[in-house]
Specification:
3 domains, 7-stranded mixed β-sheet, 5-stranded antiparallel β-sheet, 9 helices, 14 strands, elongated
Length: about 300
Amino acid sequence: MQATRERVLAALDEGPVTGPDLADRLDVSRSAVWKHVEALREAGFGIDSTDDGYVLSSVPEFGGPAVEYGLDAPFEVEYHDSIPSTNARGRELATAGESDVVVLADEQTGGRGRLDREWDSPSGGVWLSLVLRPDLPPTQIPVYTLAAAVSVATAAREAGVDATIKWPNDVLVETAAGDRKLCGILTEMEGEADRVSWVVVGIGVNVNVASEELPPEGTSVQEQVGAVDRRAFTQRLLETFDDLRADPHGVLDEWRAYAGTLGKQVRVETPGGAVEGEAVDVEFPGTLLVETEDGIVRVTAGDCEHLRPA
């Protein structure tokens, strides 16, 4: 959001404020104040003109300015009603030198997950990509994927959904029909052997998505507990991620708290073959430790399956 408009909203938060007072506070003309107020109204903010001055009466349900308003994290939000892929747009912004930008959309028309799998992204979900430039070596970037999963699980639980994480980053909900997927995460990066140029963390959450729009293996927040405030959900996700990225080594404790994989019998399909045993722990930056008949095997990447008890 434009900086002066943020200051207008901050002033309105304090109560009614007149045009001349706003002009003095912001050191702009009264005409400029009127233009900023009109721009905020066009963005969906309810700003009433009363005898006491301007009053903020409502905030948009969703969108870039709505998410930025009151967001306690240093992200700029680029919003799209519809976009083929937030990650593709994120890569464009990253290549252009941008950082700490969130590409947010109401729907995606060409969403993709890991291994180029199709990801349905209808209106009502939270589809976003974070454009980042972390001061980390490439080998440590997997911790950002874990942080994204923790951020989604945190927001989901606060919305009333008992979400868990399947290693490394699938956010699931246990139902009578088995585990159902609430979220998909895709992390992409560019860099050299010892430094990262940029990272794009794509997060797609089925928030207010109706049951009939979900794939058979999916679920949504709405399906579990009813429709929720997408703006608040998105803000909580972004604020949690921002806190976690400040302490990468602390991410694992948070991940363990939500883990549905630890203590389970698993089979992980890796490039070197299947690894089967009990998932006992994770190591930084996200390595899964599996206790097999031949001892502990460390798995850095692969498709994890929870096995049913014998």
